[in-house]
Specification:
This protein is α/β, with parallel strands linked by helices. The chain folds into two domains: 8-20 and 30-95, Arc Repressor Mutant, subunit A (Orthogonal Bundle); 99-133, no CATH class. 30% of the residues lie in helices and 21% in strands. It is built from three helices and eight strands, in the order βββαααβββββ. The chain has a three-stranded mixed beta sheet. A hairpin with a 5-residue loop joins strand 6 and strand 7. The mean pLDDT is 88. The chain binds zinc ion.
Length: 135
């Protein structure tokens, strides 16, 4: 019987789900799939610069598993950069709320946007552009 894989926690889903080299039609490109747990591993280790142990705890996986996820992610990104491939973010064994939360610093309005729709340009209430993502 296959061992059920534990759900990996992803705290901060991506704003953008596809990337590709500029000026090349998508159909001419090979596409790499970066899973959302790989994305989260990169965010925690490379951007927030957490120690692997702490990042693993945040994702609810062992340190060893975290290392494996991270090196798989690095390899895919290197492949994309070096060979000029497209990258799409999808899948992975994750638990995730399918929305992101934004805050307007001008009028204090908070609202949520579904995952994968890009970053909003302005506040839904006052149309101000002084917004930030809070979740
Ligand atoms: Zn506002």
């Amino acid at each position: 019987m296959p061992r059920p894989t534990k759900c990996r926690r992803v705290q901060y889903p991506p704003d953008y789900l596809t990337f590709k080299p500029a000026g090349v039609p998508a159909r001419q490109l090979h596409e790499i799939e970066l899973t959302l747990d790989e994305f989260e591993a990169i965010r925690l280790a490379d951007l927030e610069e957490l120690y692997h142990e702490e990042a693993a705890r945040k994702m609810n996986v062992s340190r060893q598993t975290f290392g494996n996820i991270l090196s798989s992610a690095h390899k895919k990104i290197a492949d994309m950069l070096v060979h000029g491939k497209a990258l799409s973010l999808q899948g992975g064994n994750i638990s995730l709320k399918n929305e992101r939360l934004f805050l307007c610093k001008d009028c204090n309005n908070r609202w949520s946007e579904p995952l994968g729709t890009g970053r909003p340009r302005h506040c839904q209430s006052c149309r101000g552009e002084n917004i930030s993502r809070i979740k």
